[in-house]
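notes to self, project folder thing:

trying the whole complex as one job this time. last attempt i did each chain seperately and stitching them together was a nightmare. two parts in total, labels are on each line so i dont mix them up again. if this works i'll redo the older ones the same way
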Amino acid sequence: MVSAVRHPGIAMPGGRPASSPIITVRDLSKTYTFHRQAPGLRGAIRGAIRRQTESRLAVDALTFDIAPGEVVGLLGPNGAGKTTTLKMLTGLLDPTDGEVRVLGYRPFERKTDYLRRIDLVMGQKTMLWWDVPALESFYLHKEMYGLSDALFRESLDELAALLEVEDLLQVPVRKLSLGERMKMELLAALLHRPEVVFLDEPTIGLDVVAKDRVRAFLAGINLQRGTTILVTSHDMDDIEALCSRVMIVNHGRMAYDGGLADLVQRIQPRKRVRATFAAPVTIAPDAALVADGLVRVLDPDEADSGGNVLALEVEREALGDLLSTLPRLGPLVDLAVADADVEEIIRDLFIGTAAAESAIAGSPAVGEGRQ
Amino acid sequence: MTLGEVFRVIRRLVVGGIAGSLAYPVDFVFYMLGTIIGPIIAALVWRAAIAAGADLPVDAQYITTYFVLLSLVSMLSSAWLSMFMADTIRDGRLNVWLARPGSFLYEMAANNIAEKAVKLVILVPMIAIFAWFMRDSLTLGVAPWRWGALLVSTLMAALIFFWIDVAMGSLGFWLEDISGLEWGRSLLTRLITGQMIPLVLFPAWMQGFLHVQPFRYTVSFPLEIVVSNLSAQEVVTGLGVQALWTALFVIGGLSLWRRGLRSYAAVGA
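result (full assembly):
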C-alpha cells in the first residue's frame, strides 16, 4: 500500500479537530466463488453436468482508517474491488478475511442499532416507492429508524428546503425527473441523521446542474452535521468537489491513500499555463526555460485557430519566471494557471502508466498505511 | 427492533402498498375477474354433469358452495412473491433492504396483505353476484363456529403459501433462474390444492395421498370445513395438522432465507 500521509493527523472539513477513527479496516479481503461455463450448447451441457468452480480475490488485505467528518473518495477502475469494499462496510457482504469496524460495529452482523446510524445511497438503486409520493417512503423511513414526530418533521423540513423539493413531496415518484428522484433518495438517506453515509455513484445520470446541486448539498451536510461520507464515483468532478482524501484501489489492493492535491502534485507536478495574446506569438525552442527543460510547449487546443494561445507545462519552481516572461512575448489578453486534469491523472494511475506508478512508488511514504 | 416497531413498519408498508395498488385500480379489477372466472366455469360444468346424471360423491349444493367460496379462499391464501423475490436477489435490489433496519420479508408480507385488502374490496361484490345467480343450490347456513374455523384455517393457509414462496424465492440466492421450478410448483399446487378440481372428486385410490399432503391445507381443507360434513372433531384435528404444516413451512422458508443471506454475493450494487 502506498500512502501520501505520514502522520495520523487527519485534516477535517470546517477545521474540526481530528479524533479516533469512525471506520477501521484491517487486512480486509474478499474472495468470490463463481462458476465458469464455456459458450454454446456443449458448454451449457458440460456446465450442467460438471460445474467448474473458481474463486477470485476481489479485495486483498485493505487497511485504512476514516475519521469522523471526513469525506473520502474510493476510486478504482471497474472490477478493482471498490464496490465490494463498500458492500463489506455496509454489511451486505461477509468478509473472507480481516476486520471491519464501523462506529464500533461489525457491519455484517447488521444490528438494528448499527443500521440506524448509517445509510447507503446507490445511484442506480432506488429506496423509494415508485407509484406513490416520496412522502410515503419518508413515513416508512420514520418508522424504520424510530424517529420521533418532532425529529422527523424538523429533519424533513430542513432537508426539503436545502434540496428545494418542498413542492415535490406529494408528487408520485414516477412523475419526477432523474435529478429530482436523486434529491429524494438523498433526503430519505439523511432523514435519520446518519453519522456515516456511503454513496455509490450518487450523481450517475444527472445533468450538470443537478450534479452541482447534489455535490453542494452533500458538502453542506458534511460541514453542518459532520457526517462522514465515503463515496465511490467515476465522475472526478464529484471527487474534486467533495473529497479531501482519496483511496485508490486497483486489483483489490490499495494503490494510493492520501490527499487529492498531493496525488496530483506527485504524479503530475507541473502546472499548466494557458496564455492568450492579442496577436499570434511563439516561444523559441532555445528560450532559457524551454532549453532547461523547465517549460514544455503543448499543442494548443482546437479552439485556437490563429496562434494567439500558448499552452505550456511548467515546473512549479519555474512558474514565477515563466509568468514574468510571458508579457514580453506580446500583449497578454488572458492567463490561466491550473494543475493537471485530475481525470487524466487517475486514468494514468488506473492503466498503470510508468510515470504514474513511479511517481507514487517513489513516494517517501511507501508502505505506510494511513492508520 | 421491538415487536411494536416491527408492527409499525409493517403497518406503514401496508399503507404504502395499498396506496401503490390503488394507482392501478383497473388492473386489479381484471386480476379479480381472472380469479373468479375459473370457479364460475368449473361450477357450471360440474353442475351440468350432475344434472346429466353423472355419478359423483358430492351433490350440486356441495359443488356450488365450494366454487362460490373457492375464489375468496384461494385469493386470501395466495402468495405471488417468489419470482419477484428471486429477481430482487439476482439483480442486487436486495442491497437497498439489507442496508436498512427492516427485513425485506416485512415488505413481502406487507405487499401480500395490502394487495389482498384491495382485491377483497373488488372481489366480494363479484362473488356476491356469482352467489346470487347460484342461490338455488347454495348452502351457506352452517353453524357459526365453522365460519370461525374457516377464517383460522384460511389464515394458516396464507402462511403456508407465503413461506413456500419465501423458500422458492430464496432459491434465487443460488440459482440464476427459478421460473422452471416455479412453473412446476404452480402446476402441482393447482392440481393438489383443490383449486382446479375439488379433491373429493379425485379417484378413490388417490384419496389417501391427497388427504395427508400439505397442499390440501392451503385451499381444500378450509373449504371442507364449511361445505363438507366434517365433524367438529375432524375439523379440530385438521386444524392441528394444518398448524404443524404451517410451522414446518415457516421454519423451512426462514432457514432457506437466512442461509441464502449468508451466501449472498450482493451482485450489482
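what i see at first glance: The two ends of chain B are 25 Å apart (CA to CA).
need to look closer tmrw
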